[in-house]
Amino acid sequence: MSQQTQSVRTDVADSSRAPKWGKSDTLWTLSLFGTAIGAGVLFLPINAGIGGIIPLLIMTAIAFPMTFWAHRGLTRFVLSGKNEDSDLTAVVTEHFGLGAGSFMTILYFLSVYPILLVYSVTITNTVNSFMSHQLGINPPPRALMSFILVAALIFIVRLGQDVVVKVMSLLVFPFIAVLVALSLYLIPNWNTALFKTFDLETASQASGHGLIVTLLLLVPVMVFSFNHSPIISSFAVEKKKEYGVHADKKTGQILMAAEGLMVVVVMFFVFSCALSLTPENLADAKAQNITILSYLANHFDNPVIAWAAPIIAMVAVAKSFLGHYLGAAEGFEGLVIEAAHARGKELKRTKSLSTITLIFMLITAWLTAWSNPSILGMIETLCGPTIAILLFLMPMYAIHKVPALQKYKGKASNYFIFFMGLIAFGTIFYNVLQAF
């Protein structure tokens, strides 16, 4: 056998073996893990536990495969681009045309902007609850309080994007550590009330729905709480540059580690909160339109929980608001620029456009916070469904249409993710019908 043939075979063998786990893989695992765990998890125990132990057990069984397969599908879609540095929008344009690229800009905005509105309501309710129950004072009129809080958060963003991003990154892991510590601290308060709901009639009375409807409404909240799709495009692009042909395997390994960490931490927090209360308590928390931490603070006669929980909630919600403001502002400016281009006008990101964006965000976030809509209702009707289109439905559609993704076609995981995406999206119609 010639030396050249041996060399070729060695190269083929090396190319089939993915590189070993490196430092950058660990950093990305932590980044994905940290991005996913934010204020969204503060609502999951309410919807998960309100129907009792059965929805909780089912959610525990599907949480990891649902989260891992969905984010892996979106990652593979970004990796399918011809160019090494093609991000999500560029890959959509490459595979489906300019019209689809414009649609992706709209979809990105719609997947981030409603979350900003959710956090506007949440920060107002959290601060009002803290002032009423912990400080013992009457909060100002809601119109004034909501404006002050939203304006203050947006003002922080205006101080400097780099500062905001740095502060948020520093807060991620202390927040996760505190969530775990609080979950452990609640263990002495665990009770068996949740297990009485093995009786489906009792569970239905607590949630206000039958078991099937309770499970269906839980899906968009899970999509919302376990979501870190905004960082997937950057993750896929960087790993494609770093690992080339091995990018799919390496991103799969990193996602598996990140989702595993996330599901363990979040589910421990969900179970600890749910086991500390009753389904009726959780229904009360939903009716009060507050986070689980605010409810815990008001429910237990415990000074540590009473003061620590709402402060943690305020920090978490403020952090998530700031992060989603950056994404929503970027998406809004992108829509304005594309609209100008459609009319044949050249428009760039200027201070004037930034000011217009700020005014739009301030007014809409303030009016939403003032009106105080149901937070979980917004998640079920707006946030979960729009995220599901981007994260669940679009990548699965691409697998069946894009030649570069045909090798992933026909897998059972694809049908599972597409089905879960349809459920999350379908809650829009259920909630609209319920409104009439």
Defining key terms:
0% strand, 436 residues, Amino acid/polyamine transporter I, mainly alpha, disordered N terminus
Describe this structure in words.
The chain is globular. The relative contact order is 0.18. It has a single domain, classed as Amino acid/polyamine transporter I, CATH 1.20.1740. Helices cover 79% and strands 0% of the residues. By secondary structure, it is an all-alpha fold. Helix 4 (53-79) crosses helix 18 (412-435), helix 8 (161-185) packs antiparallel against helix 15 and helix 11 (232-243) runs antiparallel to helix 12. The chain contains 18 helices and no strands. The model is unreliable at 1-15 (pLDDT under 50). It catalyses: L-serine(in) + H(+)(in) = L-serine(out) + H(+)(out). Keywords: Cell inner membrane, Cell membrane, Membrane, Symport, Transmembrane, Transmembrane helix, Transport. InterPro entries: Amino_acid_transport_2, Hydroxy_aa_transpt. It is a multi-pass membrane protein.
